[in-house]
Write a structure and sequence with these properties.
The complex is a heterodimer of chains A (86) and B (361).
Chain A lengths: L2 H13 L19 H15 L20 H16 L1
Helix pairs in contact in A: 1-2, 1-3
Chain B lengths: L4 H8 L2 E4 L7 E3 L8 E5 L5 H6 L4 E4 L12 E4 L3 H12 L7 E2 L4 E2 L4 E2 L4 E2 L4 E2 L4 E2 L4 E2 L4 E2 L4 E2 L4 E2 L4 E2 L3 E3 L4 E2 L4 E4 L4 E2 L5 H8 L14 E2 L6 E3 L4 E2 L4 E3 L6 E3 L4 E2 L4 E2 L4 E2 L4 E2 L4 E2 L4 E2 L4 E2 L4 E2 L4 E2 L4 E2 L4 E2 L8 E3 L4 E2 H21 L11
Chain lengths: 86, 361
């Protein structure tokens, strides 16, 4: 699995959906991933990629980690992984 | 009264579109609706299911094109869940026989208002007062001197113990017990738990004296305001020398336990399995989610919200959202949890180990 597939699999698990049904433009709200489910997803991402996600649970779109859509989460994780490797 | 789309829309305070004279028998989910049902489709999410059902009329989300959905009539609801409240109220027309069932035992000194209904095998004690239109289900026990306001709905098996007063329009679900004795006992000398409370558990020695628990009797009863609902098998214990109180408009779910001398304000929500220990004071509009436990002698301020399964062990300021055990401000609790979740990786690094998995590909 590449990075994108792994991130999507993590989000799909919280959304109780098949990873194939997730598209980049879907908001996490649409997927039913809100509040603590979002926090759980971000922990799962931290653990899967050994990164620290800078996030604010009360303002998911704020800060460096844009958790508003599937695509934005994938892009943010790509940046974190790249920064760690650098 | 025969229900039509027009009449129901009027009851909902909403607009009827199309054929307002269309008759209705009840409400149903869109796919299961028959031709005389009002299909309830409060978001576009339900549009596809409407096509699978046989409804001719539906309760729809704002902006829905009822004609395009193949309907003959529609009611549009700006706030769906509020419309559901009014819709279900309008359709819930349970018949309660007026008068006292021959098997009920009603003391001659009890006062029954007009239109009161007393079900089979119910017992109403001396001097009890039931307000006009109040309905008692089968096997309800109303102890002597109890007062129930008008328009109450007291479902089967409810027990109202002595010194209980309840305001108008109460709904008590089956098996609710109001006014049972408080769980209140005391030893002759200070008991272990009292010392532990003062020293936060440090240096506590078993006192060794007479361990007998002396019973503190419950003389205060329970005072419940108007428009209060108490769920099935929930219990509200009587106060010691003054009443345990529940304010107007507060709704209590099933299997909730309210201890003696507790004071609960107005318009609160207490969800299933909440437990509130003795003498704790809860403000107005407080929400305690499922399974929340609140320790004794605490204060919870107005508008506080406590998330499911939390344990409240200290006072809560007004407007706070609390989470976890011990209940902490929600953002703080999430930060704590975040740190806890990161701890195994952190320890792995401290030990000089390299994480086995999770490296980049």
């Amino acid at each position: 699995m590449d990075l994108r597939e792994r991130v999507v699999a993590i989000l799909a698990e919280q959304a109780l959906l098949d990873p194939a049904d997730l598209r980049d433009d879907m908001t996490l709200g649409e997927l039913g991933i809100a509040s603590l489910a979002l926090v759980e997803s971000l922990f799962a991402i931290e653990e899967a990629f050994d990164v620290s996600v800078p996030f604010n649970a009360s303002a998911p779109e704020a800060g460096d980690f844009d958790a508003s859509t599937v695509g934005s989460v994938v892009a943010a994780v790509e940046r974190l992984v790249a920064a760690r490797a650098a | 009264m025969d229900l039509t789309v027009g009449r129901l829309a009027a009851a909902l305070g909403a607009e009827a579109l199309g054929d307002a004279s269309l008759p209705l028998r009840g409400a149903a989910e869109p796919a299961a609706a028959g031709p005389d049902d009002l299909a309830v489709a409060l978001s576009p999410h339900w549009a596809e299911a409407l096509g699978r059902g046989r409804a001719r009329a539906a309760l729809l989300w704002p902006g829905a094109d009822w004609r395009a959905l193949g309907l003959q009539a529609a009611i549009v609801a700006p706030r769906g869940r509020l419309a559901m409240a009014r819709l279900t109220q309008a359709l819930d027309q349970e018949e309660w026989p007026e008068g006292v069932h021959p098997s009920a035992v009603v003391d001659p000194s009890a006062h029954l208002g007009s239109g009161v209904s007393v079900g089979p095998l119910a017992v109403v004690g001396a001097g009890a007062r039931l307000g006009a239109g109040t309905r008692l289900g089968a096997q309800v026990t109303v102890s002597p001197g109890v007062v129930v306001g008008e328009g109450g709905l007291i479902h089967p098996g409810v027990r109202l113990q002595r010194r209980v007063t309840i305001g108008a329009r109460a709904i008590l679900q089956p098996g609710a017990v109001i006014g049972g004795d408080g769980f209140s006992f005391v030893t002759a000398e200070p008991a272990l738990l009292e010392t532990a409370r003062h020293t936060a558990g440090v240096g506590v020695e078993p006192p060794g004296g007479d361990p007998t628990w002396h019973r503190i009797h419950s003389l205060g009863g329970v005072e419940i305001g108007c428009d209060v609902e108490v769920g099935a098998n929930s219990t509200i214990d009587a106060g010691t020398i003054r009443a345990t109180r529940v304010g107007d408009g507060t709704k209590i779910d099933n299997l909730v336990q309210i201890g003696h001398n507790v004071v609960i304000g107005r318009h609160c929500l207490l969800c299933g399995h909440v437990g509130v220990a003795g003498s704790t004071r809860i403000g107005d509009r407080v929400v305690l989610a499922g399974g929340v436990g609140v320790a004794d002698n605490l204060a919870i301020g107005d508008d506080a919200v406590v998330t499911a399964g939390s344990g409240v062990l200290s006072n809560v300021a007004p407007g706070r959202v609390m989470m976890g055990t011990p209940a902490t401000r929600m953002d703080q609790q999430i930060a704590i949890y975040k740190a806890l979740r990161r701890l195994p990786r952190l320890l792995g690094r401290l030990a000089g180990g390299v994480p086995k998995d999770g490296g980049s590909d």
